[in-house]
């Protein structure tokens, strides 16, 4: 079931399109990462999804309904973790949570029970009676997470929850998101940290308001690199062996790294490796190691961005300024 | 179920606002103790508007005027303290310009000649004042001083007339003696002698006649206030009829003279005429005696006022201003708290949360309304208790003794409505403010407008009617009018003022609700 459906959504302020022709779906029970640099349109997308703003064009559906015409009941079905701390500094952690719970009409008893659970979940039980001004930045983010989850929504929007916090706490946040997923909740999370792609079930990459790719992390890696990478080491690599490898249909591209090392771009590493070894052995080469190389998502992201830049430059040279910039397969795919 | 949820959502703001204020004990102390201490200091510090002026009298260099300050001080009374007498006009004006005195009174040199020529004597008075209220007071007081001088002058003239009335009585004695002489001559058959005696009579009474005519006209002046009493005995006359009696005397004496001038005067007629003239003389003598016995000050100023205040109490300045101060502070607190509260939500970013949460604009405003009204009720209650009771703080005895004569139900109702309307006004301020400083500035402007237009210092009725719209757009105007009636007069507030206050609250809240709803839906 699709929790979120976005079809050809564009949001313009004046002539400027802040997000342009977005198309994606988010399924129930997945962590969907929305990755892009600062100012790329991530927060605008969240505001469109939560109904705070309306699209200029296109259609947004949240659990089947138009979020800009939400009923109170509908709004109780999602939680929102804003980018900045928006609770009250003079209230204690518990009072802030009580306030957040009351905003959703939670009865005092249910609220009290839920606050107790969440204080444990975000490890703030000991700080429950401290005012928000007297807790650390990390604690504030956890307090906001607890506030967003207080009414137990099936869908959580988290706008850059890990921005500006230390790596340990970032890890903790992703742990909490995975925990939510394990309970069947859907998490839509935006981030600037490309490395966090691997924690998501699927990711969308946004740049300058345009969605470049939507895929699983692995799918993204494959589509970005045109397949998978296998690094081969041989102490007597011959030109004949290299030539034979290049002739294989499963090999897209070969890159000689030095006299003894080769990098092969293949469709699928697990299937390609036996064939690569066999060809090299036949050619009389001693294969000392063959292993799949998984580049970091930072490398993949940079690669995608470079390609988009090149495409933009090409479009500009051709006099076509409206390049859509969807680089990899699956950008329009819903699943 | 939805109703319960709405109540819970509104309740979120009640507990949040109260918790936020509770965390600021200094704020609570300043909210309650601050206004009380201001009133207390005002109570012990305000001496009232000074109605005694200081002045210098500039005398003409010639004319033989007294150089004794006491003589002039006696003339103007205690409201003007004469600091010095001088003939140097420039020095006196210099003192005025240096604010050493408030008035310079210039005594003209040609008083007698001016009056003799039938003109009023103008007494130039200089003052140096920029405060319009004080300026009006000085002008009014100079009018009072001039009246006082006129009164003294008139009293002096009346006293002189009373002294002159002694001459009238002497004349009447001579008339009596002449009548006796006429009778004696007639009895002796000397008609010619009697006639000669009678010829001197009209000239003798002419000055009496003149004086009494003037007196009677004064007493029977054409004033609507003076109702001429009708004497119980028709033969009795009063001072207002003095002129008539004098005229009658003149006619009767003329008739006596005419009878004596006849070739053969009738003795019986002559005796009757003499009796009539003697009656007239007795009456006139009696009237003159009455005139002499009247206090010259009464003649100069027949009227004096005796004012009686029918109000239940006569509050002192503190007690009088206390209801206004209470309402003014309540309005200012409500406007500031409500405006800052909503603007802070915007600044903190919580409005972002409200946009995605199921809470509605009406629920936010209801919650904030309830919390601020509860807070204001506590502050108003504490202030009322402190104002109306005596207590000791740190060994210092504090007491304002502000009376609460009226019904507590109306008092509470008025304060609640003031709080309701003022919180609504605060929301409106928040709706048009982009920042906290803007909200504070607007709140201060409302406070300033309240001081000028609400009737706190200046009566609303003294403001031009179209501008009174500003007065009636402020909750404090209704609050002050109602609280003064309830607390100081023990009366019931006008229903229109209560309805107006409630209406104002509804309008403010409704407009701010529409604006907040639009903000929450803003694209």
Question: What's this entry about, in short?
Answer:
The complex is a heterodimer of chains A (335) and B (523). Chain A has helices at residues 42-49, 72-75, 93-103, 108-121, 137-149, 167-182, 217-225, 239-247, 269-282, 297-317; strands at 2-13, 16-27, 31-35, 57-62, 78-81, 155-159, 186-191, 202-207, 210-215, 228-234, 251-256, 261-266, 287-293. Chain A is of the alpha/beta class and 335 residues long.
Please tell me about this protein's structure.
The complex is a heterodimer of chains A (335) and B (523). Chain A is α/β, with parallel strands linked by helices and 335 residues long. The model of chain A is unreliable at 321-335 (pLDDT under 50). Helix content of chain A is 36%, strand content 26%. Chain B has helices at residues 2-22, 25-45, 69-76, 89-97, 111-116, 132-187, 191-199, 201-219, 242-261, 267-293, 296-300, 317-348, 350-356, 361-388, 408-432, 436-453, 468-471, 475-488, 495-520; strands at residues 53-58, 80-86, 103-106, 125-127, 390-393, 396-399. Chain B is mainly alpha-helical and 523 residues long. In chain B, 68% of the residues lie in helices and 5% in strands. The chains are: A alpha/beta (335), B mainly alpha (523).
């Amino acid at each position: 079931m699709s929790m979120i459906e976005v079809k050809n959504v564009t949001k313009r302020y004046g002539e400027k399109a802040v997000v342009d022709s977005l198309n994606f779906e988010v399924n129930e029970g997945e962590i969907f990462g929305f990755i892009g640099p600062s100012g790329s349109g991530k927060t605008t997308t969240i505001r469109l999804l939560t109904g705070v703003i309306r699209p200029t064009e296109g259609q947004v559906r949240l659990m089947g309904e138009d979020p800009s015409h939400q009923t109170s009941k509908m709004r109780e079905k999602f939680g929102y973790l804003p980018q900045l701390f928006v609770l009250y500094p003079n209230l204690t952690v518990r009072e802030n949570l009580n306030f957040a719970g009351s905003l959703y009409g939670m009865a005092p008893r249910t609220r009290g029970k839920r606050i107790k659970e969440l204080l444990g979940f975000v490890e703030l039980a000991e700080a429950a009676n401290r005012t928000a001004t007297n807790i650390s930045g990390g604690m504030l983010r956890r307090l906001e997470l607890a506030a967003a989850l207080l009414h137990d929504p099936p869908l959580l929007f988290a706008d850059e929850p890990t921005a500006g916090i230390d790596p340990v706490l970032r890890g903790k946040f992703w742990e909490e998101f995975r925990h939510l997923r394990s309970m069947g909740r859907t998490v839509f999370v935006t981030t600037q940290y490309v490395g966090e792609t691997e924690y998501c079930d699927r990711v969308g990459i946004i740049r300058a308001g345009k969605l470049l790719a939507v895929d699983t992390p692995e799918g993204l890696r494959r589509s970005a690199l045109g397949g998978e990478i296998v690094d081969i080491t041989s102490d007597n690599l011959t030109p004949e062996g290299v030539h034979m490898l290049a002739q294989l249909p499963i090999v897209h591209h070969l890159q000689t790294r030095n006299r003894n090392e080769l990098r092969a771009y293949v469709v699928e590493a697990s299937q390609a490796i036996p064939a690569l070894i066999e060809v090299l052995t036949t050619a009389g080469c001693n294969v000392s190691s063959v292993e799949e190389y998984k580049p970091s998502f930072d490398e993949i992201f940079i690669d995608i961005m470079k390609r988009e830049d090149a495409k933009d430059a090409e479009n500009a040279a051709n006099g076509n300024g409206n390049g859509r910039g969807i680089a990899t397969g699956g950008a329009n795919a819903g699943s | 179920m939805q109703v319960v949820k709405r109540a819970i959502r509104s309740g979120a703001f009640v507990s949040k606002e109260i918790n936020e204020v509770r965390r600021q004990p200094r704020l609570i102390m300043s909210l309650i103790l601050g206004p009380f201490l201001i009133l207390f200091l005002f109570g012990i510090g305000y001496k009232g508007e000074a109605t005694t002026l200081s002045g210098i009298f500039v005398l003409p260099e010639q004319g033989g005027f007294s150089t004794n300050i006491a003589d002039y001080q006696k003339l103007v009374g205690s409201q003007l303290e004469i600091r010095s007498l001088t003939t140097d006009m420039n020095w006196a004006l210099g003192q005025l310009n240096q604010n050493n005195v408030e008035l310079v009174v210039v005594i003209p040199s040609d008083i007698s000649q001016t009056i003799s020529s039938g003109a009023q004597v103008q007494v130039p008075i200089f003052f140096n004042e920029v405060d319009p209220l004080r300026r009006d007071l000085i002008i009014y007081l100079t009018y009072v001083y001039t009246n006082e001088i006129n009164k003294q002058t008139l009293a002096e003239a009346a006293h002189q007339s009373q002294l002159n009335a002694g001459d009238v009585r002497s004349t009447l004695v001579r008339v009596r003696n002449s009548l006796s002489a006429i009778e004696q001559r007639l009895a002796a058959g000397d008609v010619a002698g009697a006639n000669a005696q009678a010829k001197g009579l009209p000239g003798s009474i002419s000055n009496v006649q003149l004086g009494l005519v003037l007196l009677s006209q004064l007493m029977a002046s054409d004033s609507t206030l003076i109702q001429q009493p009708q004497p119980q005995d028709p033969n009795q006359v009063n001072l207002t009829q003095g002129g008539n009696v004098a005229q009658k005397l003149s006619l009767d004496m003329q008739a006596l003279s005419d009878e004596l001038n006849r070739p053969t005067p009738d003795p019986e007629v002559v005796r009757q005429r003499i009796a009539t003239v003697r009656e007239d003389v007795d009456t006139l003598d009696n009237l003159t005696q009455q005139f002499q016995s009247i206090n010259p000050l009464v003649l100069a100023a027949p009227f004096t006022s005796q004012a009686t205040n029918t109000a239940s109490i006569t509050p002192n300045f503190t007690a009088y201003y206390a209801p206004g101060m209470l309402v003014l502070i309540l309005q200012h607190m409500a406007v500031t708290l409500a405006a800052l509260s909503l603007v802070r939500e915007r600044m903190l970013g919580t409005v972002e949360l409200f946009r995605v949460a199921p809470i509605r604009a009406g629920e936010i405003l209801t919650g904030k309304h309830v919390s601020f009204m509860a807070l204001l009720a506590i502050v108003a209650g504490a202030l009322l208790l402190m104002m109306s009771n005596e207590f000791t703080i740190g060994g210092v005895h504090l007491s304002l003794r502000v009376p609460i004569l009226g019904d507590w139900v109306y008092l509470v109702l008025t304060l609640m409505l003031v709080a309701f309307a003022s919180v609504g006004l605060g929301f409106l301020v928040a709706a048009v403010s982009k920042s906290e400083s803007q909200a504070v500035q607007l709140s201060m402007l409302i406070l300033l407008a309240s001081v000028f237009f609400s009737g706190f210092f200046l009566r609303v009725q003294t403001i031009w009617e179209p501008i009174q719209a500003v007065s009636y757009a402020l909750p404090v105007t209704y609050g002050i009018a109602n609280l003064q009636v309830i607390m100081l007069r023990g009366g019931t507030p006008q229903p229109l003022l209560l309805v107006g206050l409630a209406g104002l609250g509804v309008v403010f809240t409704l407009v701010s609700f529409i604006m907040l709803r639009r903000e929450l839906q803003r694209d």
